[in-house]
Amino acid sequence: MAAAYAHTCVRVRDIEASLAFYRALGFEERGRLNFESAYNVYLGLPGDSDVLELTVNRGRDEPYELGDGYGHLALTVEDLDALLGRLAAADIEPERPPYAPGGRTEYRICFVAYPDGYRIELIDGAFPTPKDPPS
What is the pLDDT of residues 28-67, one digit of tens each? Predict the structure, then answer.
């Protein structure tokens, strides 16, 4: 049996703020699933599957602890500068201006964070998996 990636789940407190953030990044809401104590909102990017599940636990008031194991989610985008302009119009600013990590010149990145503190890496253009040369 072949495996296939289904989705990533993140828990959020304010679904409207989270949906506004992800819509600004280009995500579309695809469906909801209700449970007694929680509900899930499924999101995907145009032309892609439903890759993100936002879970809202009913009655949760305190922030979630992200722990030290979570790093970030990453998205490749066609035009980082244009996206940052749209995000700025929605009051979403990058942690710092775009930069070329490790002095690489083939792409730039930057990070944004949304209401619950999860970080999203935005990668300008294609992103071949970096590999050091064989030693």
Answer: 999 999 999 999 999 999 999 899 999 999 999 898 888 8
Burial string for 48-59 (b: 16+ CB within 10 Å, else e) reads eebbbbbbbeee
**Kind and range of the H or E run holding 41:** strand 38-44
29, 36, 53, 121: which is the annotated catalytic residue? 121
Task: Give domain limits for the chain.
Answer: 1-59, 71-130
Helices (H) and strands (E) in the chain, counts: 2, 7
CATH topology of domain 71-130: 2,3-Dihydroxybiphenyl 1,2-Dioxygenase; domain 1 (3.10.180)
| 36 is a catalytic site residue | no
pTM of the full predicted structure? Answer: 0.83
Helical residues (DSSP H) of the chain, grouped into ranges: 15-24, 80-89
Tokens for 72, please give them.
């970030």
